[in-house]
Amino acid sequence: MNGVAMMNPSCSFPDPRRAPREAPLAFGGDLTMNRLLAAYKQGIFPWYEQGEPILWWSPDPRFVLFPNAVRASASLLRSLKEPNWKVTLDTAFTEVIEACAKIPRPGQTGTWITDEMIAAYVELHRSGYAHSVECWHNGVLAGGLYGVSLGTVFFGESMFHRVDNASKVAFFHLAELLTDWDFEVIDCQVPTRHMASLGACDMPRTKFLDLLDKSLARPTRLGPWTFPNQSSN
């Protein structure tokens, strides 16, 4: 791949500050926990389709959302008041990531959440670095999201919903918790209308990487996570 570095057996990456703005900075390697954690600590994440080599990205600008600046639409505010929701943390990680992989998405014929990716992030979850938020509606898993936490940054990976607003309800509760925990930022990686509707915006990559460096000086909250007064499902 022209202009893109091939990953070596070590977990070192090219300097993300010099990476292409809209193209991967490296390809190949593996999805071991050590390599994934090394990538996230440098503002790099894997994103590729089945049959491709693993592609590593650090786009510029970065799409981010500050936990205390979530924007709730009138529709979301109504949903938050409904009594039939229950939101939990880290009670169904595998179910959430598998649902994110299988849910149909407009303009998308396949998924980037391959079996290899699922296995890797389940391992991150078991080690306390990856977390899921589950939104239950009348006792049934209606939506949710998952991501990786390091320092005071939450790297959002994917979300899904089977009931309207379910993923937004899950995200709203997560943002409230991360605000209470003094998290700096939620990394949404690349722009989507779904996240833009919640208040996400562009940030220059250099500013994001500086913020990430600052955030990594804080201790990581290893899982499992729970909401206050969370009971088992």
How does this model look, in words?
The chain has helices at residues 33-41, 74-81, 93-102, 115-126, 166-180, 193-196, 205-216, and strands at residues 5-6, 26-27, 45-46, 55-57, 62-65, 85-89, 130-137, 140-150, 153-161, 185-189, 201-203. The radius of gyration is 17 Å and the shape is globular. The longest helix is centred in the C-terminal third of the chain and has 15 residues, at 166-180. With 233 residues, the chain is an alpha+beta fold. The model has no long low-confidence stretch (mean pLDDT 91). The protein is built from 7 helices and 11 strands. It has a 7-stranded mixed sheet, with helices on both faces. Helix content is 30%, strand content 23%. Helix 3 packs antiparallel against helix 4.
Mean pLDDT: 91
Q: Please bin the fraction of helical residues.
A: 25-40%
Could you describe the largest sheet, including whether it forms a barrel? 7 strands, mixed
Summed up, the helix count is 7
Strand content range:
15-25%
Order of helical and strand elements:
EEHEEEHEHHEEEHEHEH
Cα distance spanning the termini: 47 Å
In total, how many beta strands?
A: 11
Overall form: globular
Structural class: alpha+beta
Q: Rg, please?
A: 17 Å
Instruction: Provide the low-confidence segments as ranges.
Output: none
Strand order of the largest sheet: 6-7-8-9-10-5-11
From the structure above, extract its key features.
single chain, 233 residues, alpha+beta, 7 helices, 30% helix, globular
